[in-house]
Amino acid sequence: MKIRKLNVGEEIKREAAIIYMDGITNTQNIQENILAPLLKMTRMESIESVIKNHLSIIDANVESSIDEFVNGLTKGKCFVLIDGYNQGILADVANWQTRSVSEPDTQRTIKGSMVGFNEQLKVNLNLLQNIIQTQNLKIESYQIGIESKTDVALMFIDGYVDEKVLKEVKKKIKEIDVTYLLEARVIEDALEEKKTLFPLVFTSERPDVTVSALYEGRVVIIVNGLPFVLIVPCLFIHYFQQPDEYNSKAGRFGIRIFRLFSWVLALLLPAIYIAITRFHTSWFPSPFDKKLFSNSDTMLPFVWEVMFILFIFQSLLEATLRIPKNTTLLVTLIGTITIGETAVFAKVIHPLTMIVVGVNFLTSMHIASGGLWGALNLLRLVFVLIGNFLGVTGILIGFLLLILYMASLKSIGVPYLAPFIPFSLREMKDVIFRGDLKGLINSKHTYPHKENNDK
């Protein structure tokens, strides 16, 4: 903390001081727009007159609270004290170092916007306001944290937003009581009604996806310091909608069905493979049964082969995310040689197991950009164990129970599987396939709530 002492006024000399935090303030701005005008000041009637007649800075106001003074300093503001007054001037001279706007790492698109959010709240608000130029866009500011107050912005479009969702989100945000806020997971936990495997809050790094969500009647939460936003309500089908579908003609009818089928394969393919090797080899002709299953000369049982390869693939994924980028290729080659050649050649792993798990891993990548990845990894292992002990019948029963469990989930009071459960024909225009863009733009979305379902 720096204190610059000076004398102001010519008729009556008064001692004054400018207090600021070095490193997060623009000292040139302080010198030109605050210090220089104060030194040239000849007279003053009040603190308000100093701001009105002398200071050439936009954001300046009178403060008398010590708490506001301390909070202002930590946010890059400077405080001007003048002897004889029990108030001071708090002026915004922050100079935060920011990362330039760049392409988002997730939800990438071949055709469309290449701009992604960064860690600064003001920059993210600027990106969204640049796209949504309407007076109906509302932004409400909150500060979360007792020791360190983090700025949080709540955004919605008046006339489009679901009022029940908005009311519930405001209530839950105001109830957050933490010492500090560094991760959005704190807000996600507050917004989720109960602990569950599936994400009930959608995250996005793309301004265009966020704008579409706002016009769909959803609420957006932006946290200072995080390069993504939170969107509620979150429905299961949202994870299968990608920006490419709205920027190009291709994939309008079949791409979402393909992604849903890929999710089912990523969830059940290893389990079905294990169930067949254990209980249902008779489904195949005798030559195939003997070559692929009965006469297998690999060292491990099929279930352990699948578990081993899944473990290796997950290790490779973790390694490529954590290590320096220039060593990613080396790690990938080592993993390919170890698994693809050595393990099969040494008869540790059956070649068909490699194919099945490889296809399974590729299909899981189709939804890796969303929040379903963590739930998929755990559920895949659960279904592998079910297939090993209960066969295909157990897998089908387990999948039905999973659907019933998902149907019981709600995101801010909205059923997670809507508009499938409860079924709404009106809302199916942008679910299985992408409807006509003009029709989608000109129609409002509606969301079912618990009150409607209980009646």
From TrEMBL:
Top-level taxon in the UniProt lineage: Bacteria
Taxonomy of the source species: Bacteria, Bacillati, Bacillota, Bacilli, Bacillales
Organism of derivation: Neobacillus pocheonensis
Protein name: Spore germination protein
Localization terms from the record: Cell membrane; Membrane
Coiled coil: none
InterPro entries hit by this protein: Spore_Ger (IPR004995), UPF0353/GerABKA_families (IPR050768)
Family: Belongs to the GerABKA family.
Keyword entries, A-Z: Membrane, Transmembrane, Transmembrane helix
Transmembrane segments annotated in the record for this chain: 219-240, 260-279, 299-317, 329-349, 355-376, 383-407
Membrane topology: Multi-pass membrane protein
